[in-house]
Amino acid sequence: MNIPSGVDAERLEAIRCVLPSSTIAQDAGHLLALLADPGRIRLPAALTAAGELCVRDLAAVVGRNTSAVSHALRMLRGHRIVRARRAGRPAYYRLTDAHVRNLLQLAIAHVTHPPRSSADV
């Protein structure tokens, strides 16, 4: 790669070494795009609060029909955001791990945090 004169090549290489690979960046982008839908982001938020819910209860909590919630949960399960546990006929969903909970909480904290003044930037 051509590095322009006056640029600290060593520093740039150190930064380049800690960047995620293209594959990881693409997978993370897919995950964030999946959570970008307001209807889908409310499902893991409800599971954060409840721990575990069946499709019917999740649908009631988020105000959507069970078919739409089932479809969204299939997508979330496919991206390892939620996992299911069967108890007879109903399936109960929960978040896969703390990473998902932390990601959701950080996103909500970011958008609800008061903006900083332009003098702080």
Instruction: Give me the number of helical elements.
Output: 6
Question: What summary fits the major beta sheet?
Answer: 3 strands, antiparallel
Placed side by side, the strands forming the largest sheet appear as 1-3-2
Relative helix content: 55-70%
Rg from alpha-carbon coordinates: 20 Å
Architecture (CATH level 2) name of the domain at 39-112: Orthogonal Bundle
Structural class: mainly alpha
What is the fourth-level CATH superfamily of the domain at 39-112? Winged helix-like DNA-binding domain superfamily/Winged helix DNA-binding domain
Order of helices and strands: HHHEHHEEH
Q: Could you please say which CATH topology of the domain at 39-112 applies here?
A: Arc Repressor Mutant, subunit A
Number of strand segments: 3
Percent range for β-strand residues: 5-15%
- In angstroms, what separates the terminal alpha carbons? 32 Å
Q: Which stretches of 5+ consecutive residues score pLDDT under 50?
A: none
State the oligomer.
single chain
